[in-house]
Write a structure and sequence with these properties.
- The chain has 13 helices and eight strands.
- By secondary structure, it is α/β, with parallel strands linked by helices.
- The protein has one domain: Rossmann fold (3-Layer(aba) Sandwich).
- An eight-stranded mixed β-sheet has the order 1-2-4-3-5-6-7-8, sandwiched between helices.
- Helix 2 packs across helix 3.
- It starts with 8 loop residues before the first strand and ends with a helix.
């Protein structure tokens, strides 16, 4: 699995929620990419490289993730992250975006779009938190471990032996081909989370704040969202069942297309990036 980001530029900007780190590549209308738990903007490297000819592609590091820096009292819930995205776009003087979300980033994208529909040119949702379907059962053992104070030891184990990360007891089930996940990729995702005790504590707070009441609360507004919406779902995801792609299509009136990637899993933006990029390109160009 390719790991390089050829031309994306790493930047950061101070906003009320913190010092937000992000990757940027390309020019034109802005596409905003939102990753999920344990990852960071690196998830979207293939989209930044492959779609920069038609979009100014921006991928943020969420609160408590990547190189983003926050204070100890900063709210890190999914709603707080949606608010952070508004502050981020305001600071960059960006009015509208093509919004793309994966995993918990998809839940954040739904909240962002439901509360700020005028800021969304189009939306694309992949396997993600939806309504009351999260946290997923398959992820609950990890949440219990984190609540018990085990994050530091778990990350140390994954970084010392990358095969632990790839194992079925850890992140292996998130990938169609976990054996192709490189050591460099694992370093890029996990190393920022263990820079110091505060970073680990911030992530623990992020995990402890998992509460589907945030997405349930915006359902009525989501049902009024007319932004053209593409839904792309991996059919073999152990975290978010295929039925939730149908739920989203049924509840977002702006849905224009629902696509299934056979045998794909939650992190398919990395593994199936060529197919996914083509879906994004077609979706965006259809709205021009």
């Amino acid at each position: 699995m390719a790991t390089a980001i050829s031309s994306a530029v790493r930047r950061s900007i101070e906003i009320p929620s913190g010092r937000i780190s992000y990757l940027e590549h390309g020019s034109g209308p802005v596409a905003l990419f939102v990753h999920g738990v344990l990852l960071n903007s690196y998830l979207w490297r293939h989209q930044l490289d492959g779609l920069s000819d038609i979009r100014r592609c921006i991928a943020v590091d969420l609160l408590a993730h990547g190189d983003t820096e926050i204070i100890e009292s900063q709210d890190v819930s999914v709603t707080a992250n949606a608010k952070m995205l508004i502050e981020f776009l305001d600071a960059l003087k960006i009015d509208q975006v093509d919004l793309v979300g994966n995993d918990s980033g998809g839940g954040i994208a739904q909240i962002f779009a439901a509360l700020n529909p005028e800021r969304v040119r189009t939306m694309t949702l992949t396997n993600c938190d939806t309504h009351d379907n999260w946290p997923p059962e398959a992820f609950k053992p990890f949440l219990e471990m984190a609540a018990a104070g085990g994050l530091a030891g778990t990350f140390d184990a994954m970084l010392s032996d990358k095969n632990v990360y790839r194992s079925q007891q850890a992140l292996g089930p998130a990938y169609e081909h976990p054996e192709q996940v490189s050591d460099d990729m694992i370093e890029k995702y996990l190393r920022p989370l263990v820079q110091n005790e505060q970073r680990i504590f911030d992530l623990q707070r992020f995990l402890a704040a998992f509460d589907n009441s945030h997405t349930v609360a915006v359902q009525d507004r989501l049902k009024k969202l007319n932004a053209p919406t593409l839904i792309v779902w991996g059919t073999d995801d152990v975290y978010f069942d295929l039925k939730w792609s149908h739920w989203l299509a049924d509840n977002i009136p702006g849905t224009t297309r629902r696509v299934e990637f056979k045998e794909a899993r939650i992190f398919f933006p990395e593994e199936r990036w060529r197919e996914f990029n083509q879906e994004l390109r077609t979706h965006w160009q259809a709205q021009q």
